[in-house]
Amino acid sequence: PTKLDVGLELEMLFRQLKGRESQIRIILNKADSLATQELMRVYGALFWSLAPLINVTEPPRVYVSSFWPHEYHPDTHKDLFLKEEISLLEDLNQVIENRMENKIAFIRQHAIRVRIHALLVDRYLQTYKDKMTFFSDGELVFRDIVEDPDKFFIFKSILAKTNVSKFDLPNREAYKDFFGINPITSFKLLSQQCSYMGGCYLEKIEKAITRELPDLLGSIGLGKKPNVLSCDVTGCGETPKNRYKKP
């Protein structure tokens, strides 16, 4: 509360965070060192100092409390400070959960791309094997397939698969470069990549996409609303205890 001035370092920091104002959290620490009326003035002065740095319609969340392992000063708003402390911890916990959710969603999206890529390579390979005869020139046959995959329904056949969107399909031109580096003869059909003990690679990816990763999202509470703060739950009665206080 005694250091509300905006210096060069803080200006540079907010400039770096421009466009990410919704992710900023501000803590007004040592709030219990001020009387109520003075705290209100300091709270207003804080936003006055930060206003030139934050050009958004909704200001960042400000947590007002005293974050240290000591009891709050007497004759201060202990209930408010404790609720603010709990709100901050819940906010931090939500940030961690969102980060985990984003990671899981990214992994699932990557798994979908791997699955589609595997299906496409398998389709290219199967088409190549179907078109090959004893007298065929393998290089010419495959060049024909790569140059015009639509003639052989390469991509359309993948769209007929379950859980494949046209928006997930990669660029056709990319496979010209891909097979220029990786010869088609270096691959095996997906049906040949199954074993009695290890199962099939494609089935494992399918299971991860449709069941395991969504279940993992559910296990960390996706979509759950945070509990409403109440003194019955938080214990913010007449003599609230600072949860950071050392025994």
From TrEMBL:
This is Dynamin-type G domain-containing protein. Residues 1-105 form the Dynamin-type G domain. PROSITE patterns: G_DYNAMIN_2 (PS51718). One of its GO terms (molecular function) is GTP binding.
